[in-house]
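B., you asked whether I could sanity-check this one before it goes into the benchmark set. Here's the sequence:
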Amino acid sequence: MRKDAFVRTSDFLSLSIQIYNILINTGNEIFTSLQDLLTRRKQKILLVTHENPDGDAIGSSIGLGEVLLHAGHDVKIVVPNDYPLFLHWFSSNVEIIVHIRQKKEARIHFEEADLLICLDFNETKRTAQMRKKVEQFSKIKVLIDHHPNPSEFCDYMISEPEYSSTAELVFDVIDRIHLMQHLHHHAAEALFAGIMTDTGSFSHNISRPQTFQTIARLMEWGIDTEKIHAAVYHNFSAHRMKLLGYSLNQNMEVLPEYRTAVMWLSQKELEEHHFQPGDTEGFVNYPLSIRDIVFSALFMEKNDHVKISFRSKGNFPVNDFSRTHFTGGGHRNAAGGECALPLDQAVEKFRQLLAGYKHQLLETTI
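And here's what the prediction gave me:
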């Protein structure tokens, strides 16, 4: 970190005082305990994220991992499965282990770790095949997450749903436990990317001015925001672009009577378009560009279930909709779920459910 950057950042003392008031769900004793854990001796720390890790999961993990590494700890990241190629550009000295391909190595790190930090998920089922390892970890477990209604599976819970992203929350946790002197350029890049991706380039999930204050502080480390944006959003394959065109042209149904649009993709269609993890990232947002559409859903066929993404505008709560009908959850305007029915039946179930929400959808304000 540049010396002049540290001097300028220190001028934000008043903002740091505000941060303590922003972390409304977390008691001071938790931060005191974490500070003690992370400053008294070197620890073997394992960071884990949810299945199909997105920009926030990877960004918050690398950002926190880099800070902890710089503070003298032995840090590893384990993710359940592969993450998108457009998230492989980060500069980081923290090793990332992909559980589905490196199970033996992942098991060793779970066994040897002194501390497990769970990032960007609020229940263990989100870690897929890693679930038992997370649940059976016998040493100290910490949760840092911004999704509502977390289950109690960690010793220390930092759950703050008002935050735009886990990456933004990680930044404030770093500040709160007095590790800010270990934040540096690579960590700042990762945290910025996490905030940027989970807010759709700052278009949703932002209800607090503190989010932009955090962005301003991260820029003190000289990060190139245009380069980060291009690395994430202008870094797709030609196959992905063709898949997007096919989805919009062939597999999108607009239901104007419900102000809703739905898209779907079968396994066969994904294979025909050479699908890679992350290729459908953002697809569900496109129908919301249609005039007067406030609710969008994307159904993707997997081996044994259908994965669903929901997005909305205004005050329509897709997290409640997903939790009630598709065993999912998330945020008011961005949520996920799944269904055990075949793809066509899952989409039909969605269509039939809309009648019960017609009044709410018609009354949704944008």
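One thing to flag: The chain is about 40% helix and 15% strand. Otherwise nothing jumped out at me.
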